[in-house]
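2024-03-11 09:14:02 DEBUG pipeline.ingest accepted 1 chain
2024-03-11 09:14:02 DEBUG pipeline.ingest length=139
2024-03-11 09:14:03 DEBUG pipeline.predict start
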Amino acid sequence: SSNGNEVKKPESENQLQPVTLIPEPAIKLFYETPWNQTFNTLQITLRDFPDLKPREIKCIGKICCSALSLILHISKSAGITGKLHKILNTCARNVQVLVIESTPLTEEDEQQIVKMSQLKTLQLNDLQTEQTEGGFIDG
């Protein structure tokens, strides 16, 4: 039931192009070169990540592991949901501060956070996670 007034987009606009959300220089620095330096403290903010590819998960894990003390802030990143546990598994001993805002977590993500014995500060705001028995927001 078209009225003939619809504007059609060119085919190229209808197809989403894959986008690397981590800047290429960061990938090259930490992932593609022999990186063997360690930072005393590193603060990483992941914001507005709609999706993460396996290569990006591995890269974020490697970046996170390059610090003796890591402050990790995740905000508005639904693409990390269900993948956060993989990132944290690689660098759990380094994370001192973990802030998660407006990002849903899976049970696996929550379980990995609970296992992080070196974690000094955990801040959770507006998780947007369904309440599950035994989860973070279970009464």
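2024-03-11 09:14:41 DEBUG pipeline.report The CA atoms of residues 131 and 137 lie 6 Å apart.
2024-03-11 09:14:41 DEBUG pipeline.predict end
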